[in-house]
Write a structure and sequence with these properties.
141 residues; alpha+beta; Ribosomal Protein S8, Chain: A, domain 1; five-stranded antiparallel sheet; elongated
Length: 141
């Protein structure tokens, strides 16, 4: 009696690439709309990519379509946050990592400058007071 191992099997071609679910282009269209809002009225937009119904391949395709721009930044506060300008000025990829370098959020931010890089007004007031104190101390010497 033959066993299952006796059945000839022939594998042809390379393994199939992961399926793409087709959500990259709709998100890119949403980015286009948000960029138009920024241009027309100065209104920034944030798109939470973690809330998108991405399947395998969708995030990679979207990132390839957005490309890379000239500006990168990082912020170290309760974990690293990486900010990358895309090939389209005003469109930023913002990736938030926890202290174990695991992604906790991924956003597209459509703005002249990402919100995380803007100094809050209260911090500016504190900075002005500290600078004035330092300047007064330096002048007193």
């Amino acid at each position: 009696m033959a066993s299952i191992g006796d059945i000839p099997v022939q594998v042809e071609g390379a393994p199939a690439a992961p399926a793409e679910y087709g959500n990259a282009l709709p998100v890119l269209s949403e980015v286009r709309h948000a960029l138009a809002q920024l241009v027309d009225g100065g209104e920034p937009t944030q798109i939470d990519l973690g809330a998108m119904p991405f399947g395998p391949g969708d995030e990679d395709r979207l990132m390839a379509l957005l490309g890379s721009g000239e500006v990168t930044a990082s912020v170290n506060a309760l974990g690293l946050t990486r900010i990358q300008e895309t090939a389209y000025r005003g469109v930023w990829i913002v990736e938030y990592l926890n202290t174990d370098d695991q992604r906790v959020a991924l956003h597209l931010e459509i703005a002249t400058v990402p919100q995380l890089l803007r100094s809050p007004p209260a911090d500016l007031s504190d900075a002005l007071a500290a600078l004035e104190t330092q300047l007064a101390a330096a002048e007193a010497k």
